[in-house]
Amino acid sequence: MFEKPFGHDLITAQELNRSVHGVFDESQVLRIDHYLGKETVQNILALRFANAIFEPLWNRDYIDHIQITVAESLGVEHRAGYYDQTGVLRDIVQNHLLQLLSLVAMEPPSSPSAKALRDEKVKLLEAARPIASDDVVLGQYSGYRDEENVATDSRTPTYAALRLFIENWRWRGVPFYLR
Questions:
Q1: Is the full-model pTM beyond 0.85?
Q2: pLDDT tens across 99-117, in order?
Q3: Which end of the chain is more exposed for a tag (fewer CB within 10 A), N or C?
Q4: Which Pfam families does this UniProt record tie to the protein (predicted)?
Q5: In terms of domains, do 69 and 154 share one?
């Protein structure tokens, strides 16, 4: 079991992945975001795909934009040392927010299997346009530098807001706001 983030950057993530595949076949590897276990997150699939009324409306013709917010009411507290090395982009955006985006925006899977779900998430993420720097806002909450184990000159972002677009028939032109 590996805790996120999986590597420090793309190169180290790829190296770690090669090491894992040196021991296990891909079919033996399970990558999961613990955030997917939250009841609200699990209900997204049921809301979308168990209610046939939504499917004809779940597209660019009826939806102007989509906002996905992962709000935290507490600071980093006891995780400050870890968080100061990781920041919000690697701790929240690259996994939790992208998982939520995938569940909200993906096409209906061909079956309820984990593979079909994964395949649709991958298709959705591959259809995402690269995010322009003008579409990113980073910040740091007041008092972060006062947290134990945080450098007094830390520039680690604790807040991120992104605007991105999905280039497929369903979402072309619809902005997704992630924060």
A1: no
A2: 999 999 999 999 988 889 9
A3: N
A4: G6PD_C, G6PD_N
A5: yes
